[in-house]
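Lecture notes, unit on protein representations.

Consider one protein chain, 486 amino acids long.
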Amino acid sequence: MVKLWSIATSNYTNRLNECLLDLAASAAALPTEVVKIPSVETQPPRGSEPGAAPTLVNSATSGTTTHGPYTGTPTTTGALQAESTLAQSIAPQPNPTATYYNPDGRLTQPQPMPYMPAGGVGMNGTLPVYMVQSDFDYQSVALGVHQEYIELDLFHYGLERFSEQDFLDAGLTVEDRRLIEYMAIQEAGHATLLSNMLGESAPKQCTYNYPFTTVREFLDFNVKLTRWGESGNWGFLSHLDSKEVATLIVQAEAIEARQQSVFRQLLGLHPMPIWFAPGVPQSWHWTLLAQYISSCPENNTRLVWQNFPNLYVTNQANPNRINPNTTEFNEISDASHVNRTGNPSSSHIPANESCVHVNETGYNCGPAISRDKYEPLTFPGRKVFLTWDDPGRPVGPNNSYITSTTAGEPKFVAWVSQLNTTYTELTTTGKNEGFTFQPASEVYETDPALNGTAFIALTDSNPYVTPYNLTMLNPNVRALGLYQAG
């Protein structure tokens, strides 16, 4: 290729000069008169003016919070608890409302108005109220507020931490930086929306402890964080008592899903290697998120959700490698010297093993709209090595939450991606370590169930669960982590 390039260089240079001259001539021929479009001078209403937009709960454009680990002494420990708990788990029971059956597709009940079929929640003329309606609603949305705040800070922080040259070295331009900046501004709106539906006790902005050292690791961490953020919200939306609140969060979540795809593109991964986005329980979301929150303001609202012990994939595939199957054990960035399940893969690898600047289709992992990798990150049947923590570790804001589990000794590995929960057997090889094999199950024919950023859990049994009742698996979860598949 070098010889061919040398031969073509003179022709290319001549043609480039011709194009530049043509461009200059075209520019000179353009009319200099400014075209005036009919308009009036206008400004959006502000403050107390009629029609003024609500204020943001946090600046969309200002700098980041402080960063680093929490070093103080927690004043409160454990998740928020009610005065009493009714049972250790919720027993399955039949659904008494599953009686609608329509064999021919015709309407079975009178229409409430023209062109409107009978049924539907909130379709009887009741005026909507965009506020939470239960403890479940409140705690779910409060968790969502924490997610929006960390994204608001994280996106700004990455731009502050790394220079324009750092981004150029990673194959990204100033315009890519501005895209990330715009996504940060979106988070200020999301945090405001969710906070307003909670009221004055909504959680406030916290400080954070991030694990990355390079632009590539920053992008990798965002791929993981936006996945558990998106999936965490999908997991509870249909269960909210307030359907009005769910409606607004769906509209914010549509943007979160786009952000997940964008960060995958910036990292040189396929933007959407799945047919269905998975939803996970709130305690899974909180487990993955809380370990990156360093401290929160005094009297910040506490959450009820469980923090599971961490599960680590010690041979997690490294997306920075030409051949991810050559990934070494524990090839994870550990800038904060704390092992956490969402830490990005290390980009500090030999240059001849890096795919970042490999200009060859199938092996390049530089930024792109899409990449078709000839060497996938993982594959069905791959041996996956695992280690996990014991419960009792302080985590989260001010180290005030404690990891816990009600499960017995782990026997299975649950893989949660798209619509499926697939179990494989766990082979234990020592204290808190073992292995399993990546499953080959499909959602539908030709669609691998396990793809993209997936969730992985150790369980003491293999109960049947579906996307709607995945929370019922929580009492059986021994440890929880992430798996980069595909």
